[in-house]
Amino acid sequence: MAGKAPTTAPTDLDPSTFLETLDPRRREEGLVLLDLMGAATGAEPVMWGPSMVGFGSMHYRSPSGGAEGDWFRVGFSPRKAKVTLYGLQGHPRSAELLGRLGRHTLGAGCVYATRLEHLDLDVLRELVEHAFGDVTEVEVTEP
After folding, report:
1. How many Å apart are CA 7 and CA 37, to the nearest integer?
2. pLDDT at 6 over 70
3. Crossing angle, helix 24-41 and helix 121-133, to 10 degrees?
4. What are the beta bridge partners of residue 61?
């Protein structure tokens, strides 16, 4: 039996409008990520819930069958304490690229950076391109 799907879903809010509500540093970092991830994926940004910007979408099933749902392929949230990057772990070259990314920490499926200036943006773009293009572990519903 499939587990509960996530409650976070796409919204109609424009990501740029959301970013305008943030403090100046997080707004600027969010705009950089909006451009970088858009260029790296070729996908349009979509707000997921009140604070996450996602690119692309996929349908996933956990290997255990405990969870299933729709989610964005890569994304970010410019949270107050740290910028959170989603969808960048678990791909064939993720460990290598994360090793060159710069100062960050890892969580369950997330990459955290206190400041975007601590990251090598060229490596981040390569990581986003790689993660977005690797669909071996998920069933993609949209590019």
Report:
1. 24
2. no
3. 50
4. 68
Question: Which residue type, as a one-letter code, is found at position 39?
Answer: A
Identity of the amino acid at 95: A
Token couple for 132: 């977005």
Q: Which residues of 109-139 are buried (b: 16+ CB within 10 A; e: fewer)?
A: ebbebeebeebeeebbebbbbbbbebeeeee
In the predicted structure, residue 68 carries a pLDDT above the cut 90 = no
Tokens of 96: 């290598």
User: Which phi and psi angles does 59 have, rounded to 5°?
Assistant: -105, 130
Fill in the DSSP letter of residue 6. Answer: P
State the average pLDDT for the chain.
89
Length of the chain: 143
Backbone angles phi, psi at 38, to 5 degrees: -65, -45
